[in-house]
Automatic annotation (TrEMBL):
This is GNAT family N-acetyltransferase. The keyword Acyltransferase applies. Keywords: Acyltransferase, Transferase. Pfam families: Acetyltransf_1. The keyword Acyltransferase applies. It comes from Streptomyces camelliae. InterPro entries: Acyl_CoA_acyltransferase (IPR016181), GNAT_dom (IPR000182). It comes from the Bacteria.
Length: 173
């Protein structure tokens, strides 16, 4: 387990996810689906989908959770950016922190661990696809050296409006 300093007084630990984290992760993910434009769907993940989704990440060692006060306060994963094999050295990330724990350094702690793991696994580039109005996420990724690679206007929709997708890119090797 990697102990990482966070800005709140209590220590935050980031560790590889385990199968029994699935419900805590699913709750954070489904909260974002219901209330935000971080995930471009309004369909919550079912329990069975959550298990299958996490299992794929556990198999490749690409899921991490942050624990604070004995609870899962956030998670981060990476997976293939696109499916065709020519894209195999590029991964896409996702970072989610429980809403009541935002701004405490937990997202930074998770991204630190995730980038290190992707480098260790030999990947070449990490992509973040972020809703263009999601300033906290864009700032977070900028702080880690992700560079803006362009914004695609109106490629998504949620809550009755068009969404623009900002792509950010971090070289890993
Ligand atoms: C984006 C998110 C993961 C950031 O996690 P966090 O734990 O709150 O972030 P941290 O406390 O580590 O802050 C890291 C940096 O993010 C940026 N940031 C965080 N919250 C911010 C806010 N409300 N406004 C502007 N920038 C913000 C800042 O640059 C901050 O560094 P700084 O305080 O030194 O300037 C979190 O807000 C979140 O889970 N949001 C909802 C889900 C989501 O949008 N995920 C990303 C999908 S692409």
């Amino acid at each position: 387990m990697t102990a990482i300093y966070a800005r709140n007084p209590a220590a935050v630990s980031v560790r590889p996810a385990r199968p029994d984290d699935v419900e805590a992760i699913r709750a954070i993910r489904n909260h974002a689906i219901e209330h935000s434009t971080a995930l471009w769907t309004r369909t919550p993940q079912t329990a069975a989908q959550g298990v299958a989704w996490l299992a794929a990440h556990l198999e490749r060692g690409s899921a991490f959770v942050a624990e604070a006060g004995g609870e899962v306060a956030g998670f981060a994963v990476y997976g293939p950016w696109r499916e065709l094999d020519g894209y195999r050295h590029t991964v896409e990330n996702s970072v989610y922190v429980r809403e009541d724990r935002h701004g405490l350094g937990i997202g930074s702690a998770l991204l630190t661990a995730l980038i290190a793991a992707a480098r260790e696994a030999g990947h070449h580039v990490m992509i973040a696809g972020i809703e263009a109005g999601n300033t906290p996420s864009i700032r977070l990724h900028e702080r880690f050296g992700f560079q803006h690679a362009g914004t695609l206007p109106e490629v998504g929709t949620k809550f009755g409006r068009w969404l623009d997708l900002t792509l950010m890119r971090l070289p890993l090797s």
